Structure formats: C-alpha cells, structure tokens
Amino acid sequence: MRRLAGYLLSFTLGCSAFGQGIPPNLSQTLGTAPPDVQFVDTQGRSFRLSDLRGKPVILSPIYAGCPSACIVISRTLKKSLEQLNLAEDACTIVSFSFDPKEDRAAMAAFQRAHHLNRPNWRIAVIPDDNELFKFLDALDFRFTYVSEQVKDHGDMLIFLDSDGVVRHYEFSTEFTPTHIERGLRIARGEYTLWERVSDWIFPIGALGVLAIGGRLMLGRKQRATS
Predict the structure, then answer these.
(1) Are 94 and 39 in contact (CB under 8 A)?
(2) How many angstroms separate the CA atoms of 55 and 71, rounded?
(3) What SS3 state is found at 120?
(4) What is the pTM of this model?
(5) All domains of the chain, ordered by start, with CATH?
(6) Between β-strands 143-145 and 151-153, what pairing exists: parallel, antiparallel or unpaired?
C-alpha cells in the first residue's frame, strides 16, 4: 500500500512536470542566460535574443513535423494569448525548431497551417547545428528520435526576463492563460516563495516517476525469474 501511495504521489508530481521526455535540471538553468545564438525567422530575418531585450521572452521549443504535442502546444499558446489580450510590447514569443533536420520552409509551413501570425511571435530556426545544440544544452532541453519522423521530447515553455535570463519553466502540452500569466509575472520578478520552490519540486517528482517505474519493472522481472 505504501508503495502504491508513493507511486501515485510521484506520478501526480511528474505529470505536472512534463508530458514526455526527461525534464530539465532547473538548478543548472534558472538564473542563467542561454548563448546569444543566431535565429532566422520564417521571413528570412536574422535575430538574436539580445535583440529582444527590454521585455520578457517566451521560448517554445517544437518541431514542425510533430504529429501531436507541438501542435497542441502552439494552438493552446495562441488561444491563451488571444484570451489574455496582451499588448504587443508585453512579451515576445519565439517558437523554434529543435530538430537540426528541419529548415525555415518546414517552420513556415507549420506557421501557415496553425495561423501563428501575431506580430510579436517569431517562428524560427537556428541554422547552425553547433549553435542549436549549445542553445538546447543551456536550456537542458533533451529529445530523442523514436523514428525518423517522431521525436520524444519535453513539453514546455521557457520564460526569460527582460535581460535574457531564464526565470521560469511551465510544463504542459496545453497552456492556459494561467500558465502564461504566471510565467510572465515570474519573468518580471513578481513571484511567491511557493513558486520559487515548485520550480525544483515538480521536476524531482517527474524523475520519481521514472525511478519508481524502473524499480517496479525490475521487481516484476526478478519475481518472474525466481
């Protein structure tokens, strides 16, 4: 019974922390500035995060060929931004492909398909593979290839403050106005003690799901062979 209770607790925390994939180590990323790599948006315009300083930035790592999660992430982010009716100068959103095999045309097709046309929303790629992986490493964003087309990845938004420093992660596939409001508030330095603590608690819970799940599977295998 205790084992079941522990599993349910870890599962609840873990589900809050991530959709799939390994959650980032926030102790290594919060309070750091990711490298100032060069992006190219779907209009062919180059920019860097340093060009966006002066207001919070929401980073959304996705890939254009995603059959499910990235579509839901982008659509719910769009819907929540519309519901909040934020001024254009409230933040900048950057959705970028984490897949080095995707190019600007793929992201442009994704943008058209899902009508991601807000003036303050940049749909982009990082064309240099070395810079792309340096950037992903700095965010501790991880993905693996399930197949040639499908990637297993974490589902998240990453909030930077007006100086380009990582301040908060929101983990979900469906992002509500509450998610966006909370992330922007924390990016502006307006957060509670609980919000500080929860940035570390929930990823720990997600890792608990993996660890306890592994122990349960190992226990079953040991009983089956005995």
Answers:
(1) yes
(2) 26
(3) coil
(4) 0.78
(5) 20-192 (3.40.30.10)
(6) antiparallel
